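pls design
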């Protein structure tokens, strides 16, 4: 079985969670983003050293985590074995223009959290 991979060229960073320790000793953050082509994207684990800032637009290589069944959940390719160099895999493209931010968020609203849960999604 081959693993599912993709390269996103337009990931808009919407936010990051608080750092949390992982079982193997690494400290990670969950990153939430949006791609016009791919929709919501959850990136976990992500190194706190990557310093992904809200409204940054990045290019990033991702792969599915077989332990995470959520549709929008991905991890950075090589995240376990290349942890200390993950920042090298991310290319900063620019910042999402301030005048478009409110419209983007308004268009992403979901009426009810139960709808997200029914679809096995964690972002909305």
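designed seq:
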């Amino acid at each position: 079985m081959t693993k599912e991979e993709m390269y996103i060229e337009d990931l808009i960073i919407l936010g990051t969670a608080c750092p949390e320790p992982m079982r193997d000793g690494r400290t990670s953050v969950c990153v939430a983003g949006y791609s016009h082509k791919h929709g919501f994207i959850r990136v976990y684990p992500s190194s706190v050293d990557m310093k992904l800032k809200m409204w940054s637009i990045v290019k990033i290589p991702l792969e599915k985590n077989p332990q995470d069944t959520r549709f929008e959940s991905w991890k950075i390719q090589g995240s376990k074995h290349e942890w200390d160099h993950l920042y090298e895999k991310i290319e900063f493209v620019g910042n999402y223009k301030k005048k478009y931010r409110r419209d983007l968020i308004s268009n992403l609203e979901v009426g009810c959290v139960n709808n997200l849960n029914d679809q096995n999604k964690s972002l909305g």
